[in-house]
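Obj.: predict assembly geometry.
Materials: sequence records (below).
Method: joint structure prediction, all chains together.
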Amino acid sequence: AQSVTQPDIHITVSEGASLELRCNYSYGATPYLFWYVQSPGQGLQLLLKYFSGDTLVQGIKGFEAEFKRSQSSFNLRKPSVHWSDAAEYFCAVAPLELGSWGKLQFGAGTQVVVTP
Amino acid sequence: GAVVSQHPSRVICKSGTSVKIECRSLDFQATTMFWYRQFPKQSLMLMATSNEGSKATYEQGVEKDKFLINHASLTLSTLTVTSAHPEDSSFYICSALIQADTQYFGPGTRLTVL
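Observations (raw structure tokens):
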């Protein structure tokens, strides 16, 4: 069965420290891969996405993610977090098949808390 | 970036009534929109795909007669929760697809059924 796993439900990180959020997927073939951030009162915002090419993807707000085919992983990183990075982060996948574009399957999410 | 709005942002209704939620793409046209449901502290679950000019397609386990979807124009999709019950209380989120790998999300609608 297809699945998206975010092993960490909750992460607390100090401001200025590095952050890594894990995401593993189980799919028949490499799907589209995404990271979204959800802040209270705001819609989900796309941080970055991967389909093919360079396995290190740069996104907005200083985030990057690395696709590792051998590990079926797409981990999100940020070298130095800011207090404004406190939010819920979702990894998501979408199939490549025509007619299924955009049908996102989300992981359970990781709540990031940033301490002073 | 593109903007998607939802109305209302929150609604409280009595059990047995129907509630309509609107999803609008404000500065682009979208032939395809999606409706998701998010329970507290949980992930988003895709409910259905809304296609302009045709019937919506529902994910397995989603009652199409309970959640009526209409995509009457290229900028508007509506979700009507019919005969709502407390278990329908949730956060409903729509998105609009621009390209195969790009969709923009609305801010969500909090539905509370008493």
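Conclusions so far: The longest strand of chain B covers residues 90-99.
To do: check interface contacts against the pulldown list.
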